[in-house]
């Protein structure tokens, strides 16, 4: 089996003593074509990319991503089009891609068909927000078979025993949700989150990425210096596209600032 | 034996049900399940719940023999009068149960969704009773249509927040209530209004509502010295239906009939009949029948009865249908409207438009029963809330 791009990337980053900058973007927003161009910019300025397949009822997403999803669905994006977009992007970049979506999208496409097609078009991992460990059995097996990593989310309230169980199944990286809440940019960082990072890193070698609420370089530095291997940034990028006229330029600048913060890790340690 | 068999330990009703929720909610539903299993057989909790149901909510509700309708259709027809419960519908059975449980769990805040406002009012009522903070989410479309119920909830001390996302109706209000819950887990209990959502909600809400069926069984045995031939109930999420069905599940001679909202007609696509055109899928944490497009995007639904206007059906109903224990049909808006007026004139009882669907099904199908068969209809709510809407439709009011 070919080495999964996610594993390869984290290995590389570790060798260079860098943290991972993981970006999220909603496919089909602000338009289908434009989302492709934006993802090209992300692929030049980040280390891994989460591509959101829109679902009409995104219960774990805050107002910013909800709005992006509403717009994407009005643009009539669908799962087949998302796969086609990835095929086109794959011709230009070797960056690891992770699909982020909700279970009904995968279920209605056909679980095996979905995962097999992920392998075919070059998706390296899937993150299904509403598929916890106890319901994930079949999906886990199929992911294994097709060399697509099933990315687990853990939260601040994921208790020790459960966390250790999830760690046994975790592949690629573990995604820690930094807050009690939904996705969306936030100002501050909680001590509880930093403690959780330290606890997880004590019990596992799997790369750990922190997401939800990340919106500035200070957050990146703080999480990485507590032991995390990467950060995920999403809502803030959508925000920039919604609010800034020259958003491509602003995205590049902003991602460069964040990427610099991940490289700073070298200096700190 | 069906009673007590489902759900299994993982919260499944056969292949339906389960816990399809974000990781952050798993510890919360585990905590809820643990608390529920502990308190449901606790004599002190049961006594307390019984006390409130009897002396506050007004249980038991009567089982009314409908003389005129029985004569008209040649059957023996009874109505289970949930319309006479405090706040005007069966919803309070569940909100009192859950609010009391939440209080025992040390939660001081309740969050809930509402469509037309019935569940919101019942939740705000229970929160007021137990001195808890109450936050209700309501789609902006429902909010505009149901201003009187908004005011009612506010009178009861609840905060009502408008939801502008998605289709701006009940399902979006649920999304927002879940988001609030995710954000405020430590202090807040999510008081879901129907037999939907992740385990343990479908089980717990069924248990709280099955008092309807328990009373019905005792009452009909007193009147008729035998069980009914059929029980008919409308099905939105399905809490009033499962409430009356459940104690009869093992009485195989009792036919169980659920009635979904056929809206403007199945062929128009404007309906909420999940079993007519829905497919298996996942919405709001449970695996069941869902109205959705080919890619799994959830479809907008339509019914004249807001309480039936939801794209998924309770997972236990999906099981009962699959194993053939209950049968499900749908009736249209216009048929429900006819039944609304029929029952009002015939028996002096104005039914909720939701419950009118159950009456309408019998008006359409009474000939399939034998003369003098005993039929029970669950009259899940009263129609005061719908009078204004019906008056408008009839051109009596602007």
Number of helices of chain B: 16
Under the CATH scheme, which class of chain A? Alpha Beta
Distance between the termini of chain A: 35 Å
Sequence of secondary-structure elements of chain A = HEHEHHEHHEHEEHEHEHEHHH
Distance between the termini of chain B: 53 Å
SS-derived structural category of chain B? alpha/beta
Number of domains of chain A: 1
Please report the number of helical segments of chain A.
13
CATH superfamily of chain A: Aldolase class I
Class based on secondary structure composition and strand pairing of chain A = alpha/beta
Helix content of chain B: 40-55%
Radius of gyration of chain B, CA atoms, in whole angstroms? 19 Å
Total strand count of chain B, please?
Answer: 14
How would you portray this structure in words?
The complex is a heterodimer of chains A (269) and B (398). Chain A is built from 13 helices and 9 strands. By secondary structure, chain A is of the alpha/beta class. Chain A has a 9-stranded parallel sheet. Chain A is globular. With 398 residues, chain B is α/β, with parallel strands linked by helices. Chain B has helices at 26-40, 43-57, 67-73, 91-104, 118-129, 140-145, 147-155, 170-183, 201-209, 211-224, 239-245, 274-277, 315-322, 333-347, 353-365, 387-393; strands at 12-13, 16-17, 63-65, 76-81, 109-114, 133-139, 159-163, 188-190, 230-234, 255-263, 279-283, 286-290, 326-332, 374-379. The longest helix of chain B is centred in the N-terminal third of the chain and has 15 residues, at 26-40. At the A-B interface, helix 3, helix 5 and strand 6 of A face helix 1, helix 8 and strand 11 of B.
């Amino acid at each position: 089996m070919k080495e999964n791009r996610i594993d390869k990337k984290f290995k590389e980053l570790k060798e260079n003593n860098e943290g991972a900058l993981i970006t999220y973007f909603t496919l089909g927003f602000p338009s289908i074509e434009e989302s492709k161009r934006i993802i090209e910019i992300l692929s030049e300025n980040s280390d891994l990319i989460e591509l959101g397949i829109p679902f009409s009822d995104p219960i774990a997403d805050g107002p910013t991503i909800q709005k992006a999803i509403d717009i994407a669905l009005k643009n009539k994006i669908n799962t087949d089009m998302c796969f086609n977009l990835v095929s086109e992007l794959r011709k230009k970049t070797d960056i690891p891609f992770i699909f982020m979506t909700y279970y009904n999208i995968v279920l209605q496409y056909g679980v095996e068909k979905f995962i097999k097609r992920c392998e075919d078009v070059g998706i390296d991992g899937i993150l299904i927000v509403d598929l916890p460990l106890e319901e994930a059995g079949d999906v886990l097996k199929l992911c294994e078979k097709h060399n697509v990593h099933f990315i687990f989310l853990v939260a601040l309230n994921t208790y020790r025993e459960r966390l250790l169980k999830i760690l046994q199944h975790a592949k690629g990286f573990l995604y820690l949700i930094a807050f009690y809440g939904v996705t969306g940019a936030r100002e501050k960082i909680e001590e509880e989150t930093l403690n959780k990072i330290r606890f997880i890193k004590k019990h596992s070698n799997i790369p750990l990425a922190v997401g939800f609420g990340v919106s500035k370089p200070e957050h990146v530095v703080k999480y990485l210096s507590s032991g995390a291997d990467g950060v995920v940034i999403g809502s803030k990028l959508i925000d920039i596209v919604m609010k800034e006229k020259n958003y491509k330029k602003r995205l590049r600048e902003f991602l460069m600032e964040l990427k610099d913060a991940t490289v700073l890790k070298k200096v700190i340690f | 034996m069906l009673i007590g068999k489902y759900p299994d330990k993982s919260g499944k009703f056969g292949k339906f049900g389960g816990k399809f929720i974000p990781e952050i909610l798993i510890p919360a539903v585990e905590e809820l399940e643990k608390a529920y299993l502990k308190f449901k057989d606790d004599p002190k909790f049961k006594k307390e719940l019984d006390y409130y149901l009897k002396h506050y909510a007004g249980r038991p509700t009567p089982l009314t023999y409908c003389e005129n309708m029985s004569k008209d259709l040649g059957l023996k027809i009874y109505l289970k009068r949930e319309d006479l419960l405090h706040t005007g519908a069966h919803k309070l059975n569940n909100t009192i149960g859950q609010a009391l449980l939440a209080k025992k769990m040390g939660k001081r805040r309740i969050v809930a969704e509402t469509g037309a406002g019935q569940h919101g009012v019942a939740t705000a009522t229970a929160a007021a009773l137990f001195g808890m903070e109450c936050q209700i989410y309501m789609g902006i479309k429902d909010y505009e249509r149901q201003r009187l119920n908004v005011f009612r909830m506010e009178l009861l001390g609840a905060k009502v927040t408008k939801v502008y996302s998605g289709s701006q109706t009940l399902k979006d209000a649920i999304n927002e209530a879940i988001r609030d819950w995710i954000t405020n887990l430590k202090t807040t209990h999510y008081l879901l209004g129907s037999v939907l959502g992740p385990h343990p909600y479908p089980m717990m809400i069924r248990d709280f509502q099955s008092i309807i069926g328990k009373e019905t069984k005792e009452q009909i045995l007193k009147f008729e010295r035998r069980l009914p031939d059929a029980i008919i109930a409308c099905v939105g999420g399905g809490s009033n239906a499962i409430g009356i069905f459940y104690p009869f599940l093992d009485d195989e001679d009792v036919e169980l009939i659920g009635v979904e909202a056929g809206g403007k007609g199945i062929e128009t696509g404007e309906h909420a009949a999940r079993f007519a055109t829905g497919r298996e899928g996942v919405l709001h944490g449970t695996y069941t029948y869902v109205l959705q497009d080919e890619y799994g995007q959830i479809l907008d639904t339509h019914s004249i009865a807001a309480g039936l206007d939801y794209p998924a059906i309770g997972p236990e109903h999906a099981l009962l249908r699959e194993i053939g224990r209950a049968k499900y049909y749908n009736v249209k808006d216009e048929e429900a409207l006819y039944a609304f007026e029929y029952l009002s004139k015939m028996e002096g009882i104005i039914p909720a438009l939701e419950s009118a669907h159950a009456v309408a099904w019998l008006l359409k199908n009474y000939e399939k029963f034998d003369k003098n068969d005993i039929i029970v209809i669950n009259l899940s709510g009263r129609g005061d809330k719908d009078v204004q809407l019906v008056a408008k439709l009839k051109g009596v009011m602007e």
